[in-house]
C-alpha cells in the first residue's frame, strides 16, 4: 500500500516539531538556570527558541547524514553481491541492510533469496555433470577393457566379450536418449499434442508389449482396468507406463506377482502398479524420483541410468498429475499415478 504524499509531509513536520519541542525544553531549562537573574523570562524564551532551532537543524542534519551513509554502505554492499552473482559466484553474504526502509528491505531480501536459489541450482548442475560423467565413464571403461581383451581371447570368450560390449553400448545409447528427453521436457512449460486417450487400452497395450520380459521371469501380471478416457499426450504418457512396468518386472523375482489397477477416484484417474519385488529402503524412498539417484541395492544388482523415474515424474507433472511411491524393504513396492480427468 502506497503512502500518500501529504501523509509523508505531515510525518516529516511532526518529527521536526517533536525534535524542536524537546530541544526547546532542554534549552530553556539550561539557559534559565544560567541567566535567570540577568535576563527577563521573555528574553530567555527567545534565546532558548533560537538555540532549539539550531540544535534541531544540527540533529536533523546529523541524522540525515547518518542515514545517507547507511544507505550508501548498504547500496555498495548490495551492488557487490549483484556483481558477484553475475560472475557466477553464488556463495555470497547477505546483501545490504535496508531495515529502515521496508520497500528497499524487500528488494534486498529478494536478492538474498535469488542468491540462495541460484546456489542450489549451481549445486544441482555440478552434481548433474558429475553424475553424467560417472554414468558415461563406467560403460566406456568396460567397453575399452573388453575390446582389449578380445585380442587375446579364444572364440568362446570373444562371443562373451562382444555381448558385454554390445550391452554397454546400448547402455550409453539409452543414457544419451534419456538425457535428450529430459532436456526436452525441462524446456516444456505447457503440454503439447493433447488428445483424448482410453487409458485402460493404453496400459493394456504396454503390458502386452512387455510380455517377453515378464514371461522370461515366469510372472503373470494381473490387471483390473476401468474404462477411462483422459486428455493426454499419448506418446509421453506411454513412456510413463513402460518405465513403471519395466521397473516392476526388473525388481520382481522369478515367479513373483505384479498387479496393475486403473480406477476413477473423484476427478482423477488413478493407476497403481504393485509388485512383490525387493522393495525400497525407507531412507531411499524420498529420493527415488531424483535424477541419477539409485539406491545401493539397485546399483549393486541392476544396471540403469537413474533417469527413468525422474522422466516419468516430469511427464506426469506436465499433465498436472502426481506420482508417488510406497514401499517397505523386502515387501515390494507400489507406484501410484493420478491424472486429472478434465
Describe this structure in words.
- With 342 residues, this protein is α+β, with helices and mostly antiparallel strands.
- It folds into three domains: 5-89, no CATH class; 118-187, Helix Hairpins (Orthogonal Bundle); 195-340, Heat Shock Protein 90, CATH 3.30.565.10.
- It has nine helices and seven strands; from the N terminus they run ααααβααββαββααββ.
- The strands form two sheets. Strands 2-4-5-7-6 form a five-stranded mixed β-sheet, with helices on one face. Strands 1-3 form a two-stranded antiparallel sheet.
- Helix 1 (5-35) packs across helix 2 (41-86) and helix 4 (155-187) runs parallel beside helix 9 (308-318).
- It is elongated, with a radius of gyration of 36 Å.
- The protein starts with a helix and ends with a strand.
- The relative contact order is 0.07.
Taking the alpha carbons of the first and last residues, their distance comes to 39 Å
Uncertain regions spanning at least 5 consecutive residues: 296-302
* Helix-and-strand structural type: alpha+beta
For the largest sheet, list the strands in their spatial order. Answer: 2-4-5-7-6
Principal-axes shape call: elongated
Quickly name the level 1 CATH class of the largest domain. Answer: Alpha Beta
CATH architecture of the largest domain: 2-Layer Sandwich
Determine the mean pLDDT.
75
According to CATH, the fold-level topology of the largest domain is Heat Shock Protein 90
